[in-house]
């Protein structure tokens, strides 16, 4: 293992955004809860059962593209909605409408409360780059660039594969490995020479199915065993544990 806590053959590092680089996972979870609770309260009436911002978030929406999160969670409640269109208003009873409602709430929270970064992650990325490794951010979020700019970290990544790029290239999101594979390709390397850094179980699945050289699980939610079960080679609480920093 190198000073960075990585196998010698690793040439590039692919970082998830929410929960790995930024402290936005809790903001996402809160936005999903507000969205789904309002929808379910109207739909279920006296049988209303709220969205759990820990269990339901981890199992059904964390790491997934927004429409997939809507479909997956609602399917767990036996609910199916028409797809609608990406431009549906946030009150439309469609998959895209519910997703857009969540995104509006998220953006409002980010605008009013700002975005925080995990300082241990930023220092680790700087160390990775100082050692000559290339870096990419891989996120299902369509707001990835705005978030990176908000924390002054856009220049820390050679490549950005986010929800906007995935839509343009017709790449399926996590747990499929396609977005990570696209990042590796754009960095000029292959999966075997890339390390993936993820906090979501869907991201672990993507790392495993894509046969990446090393997969690091970042345990922000007390799911260490699950991260290993879904394909992590190593699990840390913070990337500072991997070394490479002064």
Automatic annotation (TrEMBL):
Q: Which cofactor does it need?
A: Mg(2+)
Superkingdom: Bacteria
GO MF entries: beta-phosphoglucomutase activity; hydrolase activity; metal ion binding
What are the record keywords, sorted? Answer: Carbohydrate metabolism, Hydrolase, Isomerase, Magnesium, Metal-binding, Phosphoprotein
- Could you tell me the EC number(s) of this protein? 5.4.2.6
What is the protein name stated in its UniProt record? Beta-phosphoglucomutase
The record's section on NCBIfam families has:
HAD-SF-IA-v3, PGMB-YQAB-SF
> Which family is annotated?
Belongs to the HAD-like hydrolase superfamily. CbbY/CbbZ/Gph/YieH family.
**Catalyzed chemical reaction(s):** beta-D-glucose 1-phosphate = beta-D-glucose 6-phosphate
Q: Which InterPro entries match?
A: B-phosphoglucomutase_hydrolase (IPR010976), Beta-PGM-like (IPR051600), HAD-like_sf (IPR036412), HAD-SF_hydro_IA (IPR006439), HAD_sf (IPR023214), PGP-like_dom2 (IPR023198)
- What lineage does the source organism belong to? Bacteria, Bacillati, Actinomycetota, Actinomycetes, Kitasatosporales
Transmembrane annotation, as ranges: none
- Is this entry keyworded Manganese? no
């Amino acid at each position: 293992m190198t000073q960075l806590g990585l196998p010698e053959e690793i040439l590039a590092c692919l970082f998830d955004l929410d929960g790995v680089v930024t402290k936005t996972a809790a903001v996402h979870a809160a936005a999903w809860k507000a969205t789904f609770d309002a929808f379910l309260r109207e739909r279920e009436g006296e049988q209303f059962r709220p969205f759990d911002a820990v269990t339901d978030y981890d199992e059904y929406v964390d790491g997934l593209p927004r429409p997939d999160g809507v479909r997956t969670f609602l399917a767990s409640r036996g609910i199916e909605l028409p797809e609608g269109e990406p431009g549906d208003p946030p009150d439309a009873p469609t998959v895209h409408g519910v997703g857009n409602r969540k995104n509006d709430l998220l953006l409002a929270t980010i605008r009013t409360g700002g975005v925080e970064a995990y300082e241990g992650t930023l220092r680790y990325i700087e160390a990775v780059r100082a050692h000559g490794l290339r870096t990419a951010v891989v996120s299902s979020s369509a707001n990835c660039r705005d978030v990176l700019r908000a924390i002054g970290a856009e220049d820390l990544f050679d490549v950005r594969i986010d929800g906007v790029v995935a839509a343009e290239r017709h790449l399926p999101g996590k747990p499929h490995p396609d977005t990570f594979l696209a990042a590796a390709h754009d960095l000029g390397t292959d999966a075997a020479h890339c390390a993936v850094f993820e906090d979501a179980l869907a991201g672990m699945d993507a790392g495993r199915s894509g046969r990446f050289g090393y997969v690091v699980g970042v345990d922000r939610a007390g799911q260490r065993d699950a991260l290993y079960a879904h394909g992590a080679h190593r699990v840390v609480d913070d990337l500072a544990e991997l070394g490479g920093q002064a």
